[in-house]
Amino acid sequence: MAAGQSAFHPPFLPIPLLRPPASHPSPPPRTRAPVDPFHVPSHLPRPTPPFPGPTLPPSPFLYTLSLAAASLVRGWSFPPPSPPPLPALPKPIHPDPQQHRLHSPLLFWQYTPRVFVYQLNEDGPEDDDEGEEGVPSYRELVLPAADLQGQWESLHYDSAIKQRLLSYATSALLFADRGVNNNLVAWNRVVLLYGPPGTGKTSLCKALAHKLSIRLGDRYLRHGCLVEVNAHSLFSKYFSESGKLVSRLFSKITELVEDLDSLVFVLIDEVESLTSARKAAVAGSEPSDAIRAVNALLTQLDALRRYPNVMVLTTSNITQAIDVAFVDRADIKAYIGPPTLAARYEMLRGSVQELGRAGIIAGERVIDAAVGVANGCGSSGAAGTAAAAAASPSASLSALLLAAAAACEGLSGRTLRKLPFLAHAGSPQLAQMVPCGGRQFLRALREAAAREQSDRSQLLSS
Q1: Strand 224-229 to strand 190-194: parallel, antiparallel, or no bridges (unpaired)?
Q2: Where are the alpha helices (DSSP H) in 48-136?
Q3: Domains in the chain, ordered, with CATH?
Q4: What's the predicted TM-score (pTM) here?
Q5: Within the chain, how many helices (H) and strands (E) appear?
Q6: Where is the composition biased (Pro residues) (predicted)?
Q7: What is the pLDDT of residues 415-441, one digit of tens each?
Q8: How many other C-beta atoms are found inside a 10 Å radius of the C-beta of residue 85?
Q9: Are 192 and 316 in contact (CB under 8 A)?
């Protein structure tokens, strides 16, 4: 290097490329896949502009040219390697689309918010004083009623029966308002809920009437009305009087229905007593007067079809005794079975929160573990996991409550509602501590469930 010459290159001068000597063999030419100058791979990031404002897509040709230059300088392969495959998405908890609302979040575009303003009726039901031998034939309750407030939310079912009933009522009202010919497209507005005792069939019917009276308050301006029929009072000791009592009852219901500004719900609990199969009467095992009662009921149900503001809600524990003609008239025939593990957990969780609000249990919050219950491998797998987790001294409240819900397998909803009281009453230590600890109460709740199972098995085996 000559004296006085700079020993470094200025930063603005390019560095000369070094060529290999002629004696060295030249490397083999690099082979690349053909480049489409107008193709922009979708998985590559786009440059962010240095100024605020909307992001504009760059020119496809310049973008591809810059990637090709970068591949020459840094030794990248072009086209760039494909991104790694995405991990497999977890399977949905409930593949049935009718059950997707149970344990999945509801996005804002999946619902339309509506606000309902209503006034609760503080008066209780009124009895009819014109029944046979002083026994009221029905009870009338003005809706919406304070006695039924919150009952719809307290009922938990794994099936979509609640949404099914609401959709059914909406469709029946729409068909009636549009004047659909009932002779061509028939709907009777009769619902039959059947299943074992204590599963909440009657409570669901009352809660449905309360819910619809609120939702349809702008359509029926006066009020809603729930007529609870006392089926046992419609049978008389006098021959041929039962059919007359049924006709007299429905004539009073017709007077209520004739006011088209009111919404009327007719609840017939244990409907098999009114609609017993007429085959048994022919065989001689039922009195012939029962045939007249069934015939009168079927005739009155057909007469109510021309009124759009009435719905008949019925329940039954013995479906084999119901006449086939009545079953054919029911639009919805839904089975209400015993509560599953997720439903039992929600029912017990609501009871524990109510005891915490009343100050009987210390104010410890039990988190919602319905998703964790659903992610378990069925009721038996979740029950074993819950029992193992509850055995730990530091078990969470949710694990203890899940173990108690798993111990209630086979119990009805009516028994589950009584279980928190029985747990508190069966433990003298809890009665002396007010408020008692949450973990102590949940362990007592599990013991009360095991005690109830033992008493029930001994009763059935004796």
Answers
A1: unpaired
A2: 60-74
A3: 118-335 (3.40.50.300), 341-461 (no CATH)
A4: 0.72
A5: 15, 7
A6: 11-31, 44-55
A7: 999 999 999 999 888 888 888 888 899
A8: 6
A9: yes
